[in-house]
Specification:
The protein has helices spanning 2-21, 25-29, 110-120, 144-155; strands at 40-43, 47-51, 58-61, 67-73, 76-81, 85-92, 98-107, 126-131, 134-139. The chain has four helices and nine strands, in the order ααβββββββαββα. It is α+β, with helices and mostly antiparallel strands and 161 residues long. Helices cover 30% and strands 35% of the residues. The relative contact order is 0.14.
């Protein structure tokens, strides 16, 4: 009986050692590539050109509602802001080596909104600023009608007024 127990214990120990020597399953299937470079910051409806060091074969963006990317040549990308928020852009070469992994921050075009507000409020008493995917209006208004006009104007700059 003791001999059988020792044999079972020896086999169990050998199996445990064999499993411990195997690499962890999560390391077999994936590799996380860290972001490269500074975030790309742009306004909605505006774009930037990015020049890559080497030719890429594929580019894509994580959230196409926030930004769009077009491959103009193997080394030139055009990134355009579509809606306020954050997403990530990726570019890979023919061997799937990551050439670009960068965060993209898209903000509302506050400069254009401020110019539009000046047409309603030439005195410049109302200021607009972007906060995440919202717009905050601050200042004094002449009357409720002017305030409502400015609020409606600003609502056109956000996805969910």
């Amino acid at each position: 009986m003791i001999r059988r127990f020792n044999a079972v214990r020896t086999i169990a120990l050998a199996i445990a050692i064999a499993f411990a020597a195997l690499p962890a399953p999560h390391l077999w299937a994936s590799q996380i590539v860290a972001p490269t470079g500074a975030p790309i910051v742009l306004d909605a409806s505006k774009g930037v050109i990015i020049r890559l060091d080497r030719p890429c074969s594929s580019v894509f963006v994580a959230d196409p509602d926030i930004a769009d990317v077009q491959l103009k040549s193997p080394t030139v990308l055009y990134v355009m802001g579509k809606g306020a928020g954050e997403t990530t852009i990726y570019a890979v070469d023919q061997q799937d080596a990551v050439l670009l992994n960068s965060r993209v921050e898209v903000h509302q075009d506050i400069d254009r909104l401020s110019r539009d507000i000046r047409q309603i409020d030439p005195g410049g008493r109302v200021q607009a600023r972007a906060v995440d995917d919202s717009i905050v209006l601050e200042g004094n208004i002449k009357d409720a009608a002017q305030g409502d006009d400015i609020r409606k104007l600003a609502a056109r700059y956000v996805a969910n007024p």
